[in-house]
# Entry
Amino acid sequence: DVKVTQSSRYLVKRTGEKVFLECVQDMDHENMFWYRQDPGLGLRLIYFSYDVKMKEKGDIPEGYSVSREKKERFSLILESASTNQTSMYLCASSSTGVGNYGYTFGSGTRLTVV
Amino acid sequence: AQSVAQPEDQVNVAEGNPLTVKCTYSVSGNPYLFWYVQYPNRGLQFLLKYITGDNLVKGSYGFEAEFNKSQTSFHLKKPSALVSDSALYFCAVRARDTGRRALTFGSGTRLQVQP
# Structure
């Protein structure tokens, strides 16, 4: 069964900490994405990557950075966590193959910043 | 820029009745359209997609959606709702020919099916 695995389901961090959220996919997908999900706002794109070492800003990149050193792994970094970054974070991957374009999602990481 | 509107925060329907969850979109050129479902404390699961061809798309769990280009809509439908269909539903879009490869999602619609 193909998978996108997020390293933590629940995470509690203190304000100002540097936080790493890890995502690994086993489908050899080219594209990987980080979204945050907040009630009433749906999913908002933070960053995405379409190749190793490549990244593009999404709609809300401020306060975040990403790293993709290997094809299967895409990390989201909160440089200095703040309470307004408390949210559900969802990682997804997709293939560039013709006719595909859909995402496979991880189960999410619920981050609380105190 | 691309966007999705899901005008209803919540849809309530009795078990056995037909259901509709509405979605309209805005995109440059032709769209790729998707529906995803999310159960509590889980990631999103793919339901169905419109890429090209037949405007009526059939997906998982008996769901279907109709692509209407003139109305820029992609409403999700099911002929007979089940209590187990209760979940959060997201519509998503991306442009077929231009722009970034990332999907833009709507705000979600919570479906409640009463026994």
About this structure: Chain B has no helices and twelve strands.
